[in-house]
Amino acid sequence: LRFDEKVRVVVVKSEVKGVFCAGADLKERAKMDDAEVAHFVKRLRNLMDEIAALPVPTIAAIDGYALGGGLELALACDLRVAASSAKMGLIETTRGLLPGAGGTQRLPRCVGIGLAKELIFTGRQIDGQQAFSMGLVNHTVPQNNEGDAAYQRALALAKEILPQAPFAVKMGKLAINRGMEVDIASGMAIEGMCYAQNIPTRDRQEGMAAFREKRPPHFTGK
Questions:
Q1: What residues are labeled active site?
Q2: What CATH code is carried by the domain that includes residue 199?
Q3: PANTHER family attached here (predicted)?
């Protein structure tokens, strides 16, 4: 996906009705020794980092349970859409664990330190409406009979992104992600560097021309 220039947005969904991702298989985990567990979690953390680093926007469509590593997968995406009936939680402390695939870092950056600590310390599960009220998801929708309401809303959101200039969106994501990790002065410098890369693009010229000519722009990602 990273190297396919035709990809503009990635939507992450489940093929299992009622479940987005239920997290690790604890029966499988119980058969591992300590070294194997450490290796498994490191690989999982690397996978989440790879998803977070994709250059295009990513949207998690949460139509059911997103627990433990499943919620960490959703947190690795840029945007999240949930059915109101979905259940989410970093439940690791209820199993003698702590989140190990980015949850302790991405959740507080998403909802704030206080709420993140409460959710992680208690292992509480919340529904889609509660997740929306605390800013964990961008949108919540009533579930439909097919069980894919969040996916349908995620597709609609993706279609809002598709017409926009691909390189500008890519640079916007990079500027936000890098800028959130540093002080604002450094963040401004990062934004400036990303903007400088966007100036010579054909898409920027097309955007300006379309505005002057009062027509929709036709972006190519160049």
A1: 24, 69, 72, 92
A2: 1.10.12.10
A3: ENOYL-COA HYDRATASE DOMAIN-CONTAINING PROTEIN 2, MITOCHONDRIAL (PTHR11941:SF44), ENOYL-COA HYDRATASE-RELATED (PTHR11941)
Q: Is residue 55 part of a domain?
A: yes
Kindly indicate the confidence band of residue 37, based on its pLDDT and cuts at 50, 70 and 90: confident
pLDDT at 105: 96
Distance CA 103, CA 92 (A): 10
Nearest to 23 by CA among 67, 75, 82, 74: 67
Predicted pLDDT of residue 28:
85
CA–CA gap between residue 72 and residue 51 (Å, rounded): 11
Alpha helices in the chain (DSSP H): 26-30, 34-52, 69-76, 103-111, 113-122, 128-133, 149-161, 166-179, 184-198, 202-212
Q: Is residue 95 part of a domain?
A: yes
Nearest alpha carbon to residue 132 among 60, 75, 67, 80 = 80
| Same-domain check for residues 119 and 179 | no
- Checking if the pLDDT of 45 tops 90, the result is yes
Torsion of the alpha carbons at 113, 51, 131 and 163, rounded to the nearest 10 = 120
Look at residue 21 and give its three-state secondary structure. strand
Residue 5 lies in a domain: no
How much is the pTM?
0.93
For 138-152, write each residue's pLDDT tens digit: 999 999 999 999 999
Q: What is the pLDDT of residues 24-35, one digit of tens each?
A: 887 888 888 889
Distances (CA, A) of 137 to 75, 88, 202: 9, 10, 34
The whole domain housing 29 covers: 10-162
